[in-house]
Amino acid sequence: MCHPQSLHGGVEAIKVTVKRGQNGEIELVYRVMGALEELKIASPATPDRVDGLWKNTCFEFFVKNSAATAYLEYNFAPSGQWAAYQFSGYRADMAELQTEAPTISSTDGDQFLTVSVTLQLPDTWQNADLWAGISVVAATQSGDIAYWAFVHPPGNPDFHHKDCFALQLEARSAA
Question: What CATH number is given for 11-169 in this structure?
Fold first, then answer.
């Protein structure tokens, strides 16, 4: 849903699927529907780690272990660029997460953009019950930003807020 304090930015709807793989990977598929010509979308680029992806339209995934306050933040751009951070608690001790590059691909049409991502969770996170937050920053050509998330806390947009971690990802069973 779009945050009530932000404009939709030409986006009519966003759908996301999340799948937890057998080997600790997470597969995400973001599908944005609407007037894509209104969005600021980075052109294809070398798939490097880059800060500040939110300045263009980007896709985000937050994840935390159900028993801890520490969490991870991943950012993905349709350009193939990405970023990953770790936090010890709410916006605390931000550090670059040492991880392998995710696989990112995107396809678009007149009224849709699909961004598919496969990322590898750190070893200590692979067999734990997790809580996830899914969000999209939809930057427009006119300079507005629409904040989309599975759940929004009260007040200003804040994807780091504990209420945003609303999607449970159960650990894979050994059976």
Answer: 2.60.40.1190
